Amino acid sequence: MWEHLLEQVPMWSLAVYVVLIGIELTLEFVEKRHEYALNDSLCSLSTGVAYVTIRTMMKGFMLGLLMLAYHISPLKIESNWVTFALCYVVVDFLVYCYHRSVHEVRLGWAAHVVHHSSQKYNLGATAFRQSFAEPFIEPWFFVPAALMGFDPIMTLFALETNLIYMFWVHMRRVKKLPPFIEYIFSTPSHHRVHHANNVQYLDKNYGGTFIIWDRLLGTFAEEKEEPVFGILQQLDTHNPVKASLHSWKDLFHDVRHAKGLRNKIAYLFMPPGWAPDGQGMTTRERQSSHASTGMAE
């Protein structure tokens, strides 16, 4: 059953994407909101094609990795709709862990930053702006689900379903939803915060389907101030190659010029903004400074 459902995912996702993008583009034309820009959209779609191509090629590796973990695990959980619901919650927590890691570890951020580099926020472009490098990182984070005894095919189906859910939250028109939904689920309001470069919003709201993890683990921020989209040092190009590689170039430069092996390794695994001898400024340090300035005022 799970194999059949997994095979249906591309058709489901295409249907969801086409319908929602069609609605958004229609409203864009009717309301003249200018939320799309041709060069920006083409850049996003180009990186999205590269991501989908590589991720498709890596799917066999990911399945093999999960099957190996499942094989060596002493736990075996029966696959049915009840255990799928439990598996989905576990996978969503692992999505949170993965998402947080690619933000708060510079090696991961070098890959993920392209997804945040658009200064637009929409379904037809921003949601598709993805990194060619993330498919090489992603599989390792979902091994724990297989080690817990969840069937690898069911785990992959849960992950693909989660990714479909995450598509619709890249919307500006949907404001805040009823409080009980906003408290439990990731919503467009939460995800706008995640994509904003306002200091208080940086590295917040990592949740895939559920926002509960952020509330429990101290990474939640409510949308109050109008979000400003993009990254701290905004890109001045719509070239998809430059958009995908600029952060890698900066990382390799820092590693190459760092003194000592310890600092070279630290550049890879410390948070973005870190530098030896306190010369840099991480997100947490920026937020602490911002909060202190606000209290002083």
Structural commentary:
There is one protein chain. The protein is mostly helical. It has one domain. Helix content is 63%, strand content 0%. The protein is built from 13 helices and no strands. Helix 2 packs across helix 11, helix 3 crosses helix 4 and helix 3 crosses helix 7. The mean pLDDT is 92.
Range of helix content: 55-70%
User: Mean pLDDT, as a whole number?
Assistant: 92
Structural class, from helix and strand content?
mainly alpha
**What is the CA-CA span between the terminal residues?**
60 Å
Q: Write the H/E string, N to C.
A: HHHHHHHHHHHHH
Number of strands: 0
> How many distinct folded domains?
1
Which range does the strand content fall in? under 5%
What is the compact description of this entry?
The protein has 297 residues and is mostly helical.
Topology summary:
Blueprint: H1 2-31, H2 38-72, H3 81-104, H4 106-116, H5 134-137, H6 143-147, H7 152-167, H8 179-184, H9 188-195, H10 212-217, H11 240-257, H12 261-269, H13 283-296
Helix pairs in contact: 1-7, 2-11, 3-4, 3-7, 4-11, 11-12
Descriptive keywords:
297 residues
